[in-house]
Design goal:
Layout: E1 3-9, E2 13-18, E3 23-28, E4 31-34, E5 39-42, H1 46-62, E6 70-75, E7 78-82, E8 85-86, E9 89-96, H2 100-105, E10 112-122, E11 131-132, H3 134-139, H4 145-168, E12 171-183, E13 186-190, E14 198-202, H5 212-215, H6 221-233
Antiparallel strand pairs: 1-2, 2-3, 3-7, 4-5, 6-7, 8-12, 9-10, 9-12, 10-11, 12-13, 12-14
Bound molecules: adenosine-5'-diphosphate and magnesium ion.
Length: 240
């Protein structure tokens, strides 16, 4: 499929039109941002690591009949995806308390939650992604109650499938953020599933293999994203 003009540039990815209006080319950039874009940097091959991690996980979720926008990887750092009308809501699923959950509710950092928490945030960096509930989504016209039920059902299933997947790879799925879109009357899981959108800790050592390394200046960002990719793909990781 031919790459046409740039359709949208975000903080971490570029979307290009293709010769088929139903599909977009999603190119992962080496840029990394945190705190709603206030903190910015880049590191080599980050786009490749996130594209390959996402491609594997979308493909894995499809094998569990979860509808995703993923069509195929087209290069190390790009994938072909369905062109969707995006719902501007970030769906966060949490298994372990950390980050903003700890700040907001004063629960212990690292505590295993007795039940997965699902939270909704409006995707609006200028307002620091304010937390919303389902009724905001209906009142603002972002989705219908039926679509929300589908979104929450998919998010719960993604959590169940990925939690046991990461566990088998010796990793803990702490929390993650999903985005959804619709096309041809159906809801699809979209965007990415990578170290940028998930918190993932090594089960034995507790080492963080995600964007918290950048947020909190923990170092080894490049090798940690690379390690995450290799462990997801179940390939041997050979650090230089
Ligand atoms: N399948 C899709 N179709 C259309 N837009 C998408 C799709 N998947 C993700 N997007 C949107 O593309 C953009 C991805 O680029 P990103 O750099 O993550 O942007 P942002 O800075 O807005 O998070 C986001 O706005 C996301 O909502
Ligand atoms: Mg994004």
């Amino acid at each position: 499929m031919e790459r046409k003009e740039l359709f949208h540039e975000g903080k971490a990815k570029r979307l290009y039109l293709t010769d088929d209006p139903h599909y977009l080319l999603m190119e992962f950039k080496d840029d990394i941002t945190a705190f709603d874009g206030d903190k910015k940097s880049e590191f080599p091959r980050k786009g490749e690591f996130n594209n390959q991690t996402s491609a594997f996980l979308f493909n894995y979720l499809e094998s569990y009949h979860i509808p995703t926008h993923f069509v195929q990887a087209v290069s190390d750092s790009a994938m072909l995806v369905r062109n969707l009308k995006m719902i501007p809501i970030e769906v966060v699923v949490r298994n372990i308390a950390t980050g903003s959950l700890v700040k907001r509710y004063g629960v212990e950092d690292g505590m295993t939650l007795s039940y997965p928490i699902i939270e909704l945030f409006l995707k609006d960096d200028s307002r620091h992604d304010p937390m919303i509930n389902e009724t905001h989504a209906y009142a603002f016209g972002h989705c219908t109650p039926e679509q929300m039920r589908t979104i929450v059902r998919i998010a719960s299933k993604v959590n169940a499938v990925l939690k046991s997947f990461f566990d088998r790879r010796g990793l803990t799925l702490v929390d993650f953020k999903l985005e959804f879109g619709y096309g041809e009357g159906e809801i699809f899981l979209a965007d990415e599933i990578s170290g940028d959108s998930c918190r993932i800790w090594d089960k034995k050592t507790g080492k963080k293999l995600d964007k918290d390394r950048f947020r909190h200046d923990l170092g080894d960002i490049e090798s940690s994203y690379e390690e995450l990719m290799f462990r997801v793909l179940n390939k041997e990781h050979k650090p230089d």
